[in-house]
Amino acid sequence: MILEEKRVKDECMKVKIIGAGLAGCEAAWQLANQGISVELYEMRPYKMTPAHKTDKLSELVCSNSLKSNKLDNASGLLKEEMRLLRSLIIEAADNNKIPAGSALAVDREGFASYITERINAHPNIHLYRKEILNIEMPCKNPIIIATGPLSSSAISESISKLVNQDHFYFYDAAAPIITYESLNLEKVFRASRYNKGGNDYINCPLSKDEYYAFYKELVNAEEAPTQDFEQGKIFEACIPIEIMARRGIDTMRFGPLKPVGLIDPKSGKEPYAVVQLRQDDSRGLLYNMVGFQTHLKFSEQKRVFSMIPGLENAEFVRYGVMHRNTFINSPKLLDQYYRFRKNKNVFFAGQITGVEGYVESASSGLLAGLTLAHTLKGKKPIDFTDKTMIGALAYYISHSPTYGFQPMNANFGIIAPLEKRIKNKKEKNIAIVNRSLTLINSIVKNIF
């Protein structure tokens, strides 16, 4: 009898995680560090997605930037919260960072390799290279579904049956990557906006005539075949550059091509428009075209983007691509712990929940992993509250209106207001940060 009870207990202490991306790896790491045995499933390399190129865990398929690292920024606050909570993803980013001004950008190969090695080396994590085709229903054992925005058709169908509704979906786009040696260095200059963070960006200045010529060709360029793409469901933060341009001739100049805070040393003046290139690898051999997510044909990308001063002979090692992202109607389905309302053994994590962004996805895995670990140990879930950025994201995806639900990045707008009103925006953000980190530090003392 005692042996049977032990067997049942041990079985319940095993957690299955489907998907070894940023959210899945973070959830596995948190669970494993709490003494929970984890079975982590990843279908690559046996089955690849349209966007992934390697078999490494947590491979970044779009930008190599994890956004701002500054504490007075919402994304920077989220990272600091996760550092305090011993996040694997932030640890990997900090150990593989490359110059990017005030942003935390990483060598994508080193980043993924670091996470893969750490996961493989952990005694409580067992990695299986296998595609999970369906989810057991009813789910009797703990499971975290972190299949990501590129979920396979089989698991997507199974998830759809589990939640008893069709997925919502949108389409995401990735920017091109070019080689440093192919740049015309006589036409570009190094600088960060307002000289913040050093001369980490390569800037391609455009005159008014050059900008107008580029704009004309961009809005008339031929897009790749759409297949089942639905242009109306593109996530706004990742909108293709050609669609942005069609909204108005100056739209790009108020977006990724804004020249504000950048002075061309050749003229001593602010250019009419600027295309920025951000380092994409640790050796500085590859550069990402900032804000140039696109769905243009590859030949059109080469033709139109080569009109940008400095990119006349650009060598593209990766053209921009567009791919399907999948997410569920979380406010209807999940609670503030990323837990399925209808079955407490089931958790979701990552972009499939409606958090948008690398760090946001990892934070959902962190919260889900810690919650499940505490639950399995008979403890109450940790209440991060919406006064922390981690908690605010979880609150947003679980308490938003169910109709028209859309993905959300970390931002100060979703965090709980301060008890005392502060008019100065910078002072207000600092106060929010201090309150949040105080709460996180108190939580850390009770976890580790």
What does this structure look like?
This protein has 448 residues and is an alpha/beta fold. It has two domains: 2-167 and 328-447, FAD/NAD(P)-binding domain; 174-324, Elongation Factor Tu (Ef-tu), domain 3, CATH 2.40.30.260. The protein is built from 13 helices and 16 strands. It has helices at 2-12, 22-33, 74-84, 88-95, 108-121, 153-163, 208-219, 241-245, 298-305, 330-333, 358-376, 389-399, 425-447; strands at 14-18, 37-42, 65-68, 97-98, 103-106, 125-129, 143-145, 168-174, 177-179, 189-190, 201-206, 273-279, 286-289, 316-318, 321-327, 346-348. It has a six-stranded antiparallel beta sheet. A five-stranded parallel beta sheet has the order 6-2-1-7-16. Strands 3-5-4 form a three-stranded antiparallel beta sheet. Helix 3 runs parallel beside helix 11 (358-376). The protein is globular and about 65 Å long. It starts with a helix and ends with a helix.
